[in-house]
Amino acid sequence: MKKVSIITPVYKVEQYIAECVQSVIDQDYDNIEFILVDDCGGDDSINIAEKLLIESTKSGLSYKILRHEGNCGVSAARNTAMRAATGDYIFCLDSDDKLMEQCITVLLAKAVSTGADMVVCNHTSEGKAQTRGGFLNAPVDMINTNEDCIKAFALSWFNVAPWCKLIKRSFIEQYRLFFKVGIINEDAPWTFQLCLNAQSIAFVKQSLYVYRDNASSIMSKERAENINQSNVIALQIFHREIERRNYLWKDINVYNIMMRQIVIYYTMTNEQYGYEGIKEHIFLLDKLHFSSPYFSCYFSVIAKYYRLWNLAFLLPTCIKSFYVWTIIRLQKSL
């Protein structure tokens, strides 16, 4: 029987952790390794979790509680758990979310029957979380080429969050697919790296994961101050990974992925700092090197808004900032 390692960072989730842990205990699959990482939130979260696990009589459930010496962030906590995992598959569960009872059984059955590197399921959302992220909308049940895995990411066939994904541990270890530590928006670069290396992804349309609204995790002042630099790093990770595979620049899907990240970065910069923020950070467009023909030509297959962004790469630096600021403001009318 295949073993599944469920990994969960724990940080300031007293009101959620009991339901999260109980949803693992209630799984109808009997070979689960549950790894929790105490990321030093200073509350009673890890003690609540440990008490439930000690009292559990579920067969086939083992657990490990790992403790950081200080708060290291969710990326470091997930990395700690993944390195300690011994299961055939790894599943990320956030400590303020929960699983449907049959989650692991259904995902593992799909993984075994298809041999896919990764199996992605759908999810339900509660509260304000219903308006965040994307849901599974893949039009097929399985893809079997790396090209299609990249295309699935480009077309947003599934949420980029690490949860809802059952992944072969050997696949993670082979390509060293760990999270970038120290940034806030670690999800998208990590999932992009998964898709760059995957040869197959299977999809389960069933909603097996519950994504819950945690008001305390929504952007704090400190988070807002760090998000711009995190977005720079995320953008650089996308660029670096493509540069390592130079042949990918010929792929229209890769162009769309990279342009989407650029637009996200400058749009968020504008929301935070306005025109002066764009002006201060416009140098990134000059530093990034693009070998894709799609960045310089007006192909009809490129979205109109992206075609406008292409021009930003050709303009003199003295007017580039104003142009970028203008097209961001015009976005809703295009």
What does this structure look like?
The model has no long low-confidence stretch (mean pLDDT 92). Strand 2, helix 2 (45-55) and strand 3 form a beta-alpha-beta unit. 37% of the residues are buried. Strands 1, 2, 3, 4, 5, 6, 7, 8 and 9 form a 9-stranded mixed beta sheet that branches. The chain has helices at 17-25, 45-55, 74-84, 103-114, 146-154, 169-174, 187-197, 221-243, 252-281, 283-287, 304-312, 317-330; strands at residues 4-10, 32-38, 61-67, 89-92, 98-99, 118-125, 142-143, 165-168, 201-211. With 334 residues, the chain is an alpha/beta fold.
- Overall CATH class of the largest domain: Alpha Beta
Shape: globular
Radius of gyration: 21 Å
Beta-strand percentage range: 15-25%
Determine the fraction of residues in helical runs and give it as a percent range: 40-55%
User: How large is the count of helical segments?
Assistant: 12
Q: What does the main sheet amount to?
A: 9 strands, mixed
CATH arch. level architecture of the largest domain: Alpha-Beta Complex
Oligomer: single chain
Number of domains: 2
Q: Classify the secondary structure makeup into a structural class.
A: alpha/beta
Q: Give me the strand/helix succession.
A: EHEHEHEEHEEHEHHEHHHHH
The fourth-level CATH homologous superfamily of the largest domain is: Spore Coat Polysaccharide Biosynthesis Protein SpsA, Chain A
Average pLDDT rating? 92
Please mark out the parts with pLDDT under 50 across 5 or more consecutive residues, or reply none.
Answer: none
Q: Might you state the CATH topology name of the largest domain?
A: Spore Coat Polysaccharide Biosynthesis Protein SpsA, Chain A
Roughly how many Å apart are the termini? 54 Å
